[in-house]
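We read letters as residues; the integers encode the fold. Take this protein.
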Amino acid sequence: MQLTQSTKNKICSTLVFVPVGMVSLGYVLLKRDFAKIYVDLSFLDFPVFIGEVLLLSYVLLLALRWSRQPPLHNRFYMFVLVYFIWVAVKIVIGYRTWGPLALRHAALFYYPFFFLVGYIFFNRDAFTKPVILSLFSVIIGIFLYGHYDIYWTFTLASLGLILILGVKAKKWIVPMVLILVLATPYVFLFKTARMMFVANTASLLFLIGSLWYLLETKRYVKIITVVILMVGLSIGFYKFFVLRESGRIFVSPSQVVSQFIAIDKDVQQKRKNFQIQSQRVGLYHPEAYAARNYYYYNKGFKQSKERGLESAKKLLMKGKVVKGVVMTKEMSIQWESIENILFRLFIWRDMFEDWKATKPLMGVDFGKPFRSVSLEVEGWAVSEWGRDGWIEPHNSFLNMMYRGGMVGAAVVVVIWTALIRLMIFAFRQRAWVLILLSAILLNWLVAANFLLILEFPYTAIPLWTLAGMTWAYAYRDYREGSHEIKR
């Protein structure tokens, strides 16, 4: 039986997305443990993780496709070619100078390759009713199982709604909505890290605004709907962060600034006679690097705990150290919340000073270990730099500019500009699928301001793949004259 070209395309799309889908499922369920699966090759001095195995497989697949069917010579593919040549050059220079750590830093810049995979191989016809129902069942199964990375709660719930919108048979819609409403663990939208709560709040506010703008009903119904949702969001914030049921609190900006200034005075004083100790630089490897720097790490951790307790007492007793004071649970939560913010501020300040020292236009070398003097002076975050000999900035966009220079800054601008254009396009088309996809991307990009979302494989690979599929669905399908996008 002769297969039609349409059928071949659907089969190809399915075969391409099954591996990345299975790996993404592993990331959602097992996070770091799954990401640490690796293979050792005798001719390499670094482990090859499952994310990189997947990446190399798709590079070969795309090279094979383009050898038979070359891509169009347009500006987009020319930009992509130049960009990845630049990344390759940076990797070679960094590896020759600094070693395997160059590949760790390069991940931030080569994971966008999965955007190409999502964009090129996406075929909406592959999402048949059996496929949609299967994917929906997986999402419900994850929620009912309960043991997964809770950062994915908003994304999974939104994808569930998108799949419901993709079902054409009305008899399926009501039961699917009821199942999703009952199965979604809403508590994890609030009982989570502060940075993820901020990201969830940004996405929820975007969706609430979208409801007000796009909901085609009477004005009083809109008002009631928006008020109910805003009250629910406010109750969640009050319950988990004011009453502290999440174990975390939000700290006022004025308090953060005052404590940063106070602690920085101590940092500047100690820096005068402080010398960063030389350490072996490690790239994660469960066997080869397990015992590295442990003596220095344990010694530093003890100092960090003592200094942290002293700093907490000074902070919470308003500068008066009271002998015999025992850190209560509430004092500990307050100090941890403030320290978590100051930790990032000191890293970002030191990273800027490090870049300013040489002002590299193409960014700091991949592989060059970054050490935050401020943190080491205070004995903070020893569990990271004391173990590996380097620390990351906990901000994907600042890291892009730090490691990529002008190119990194341009990538940041492109990312946010593209998202804003997608949102505008979604509103103009009154397309709820695109609204939900925009909310998902916004969710992770907001979180990327506080964590290495675009560098960790367990978030970067699924996110970039989904972004590529979103762009294909929005712009390529629209140009081909599909009107079903307005669902």
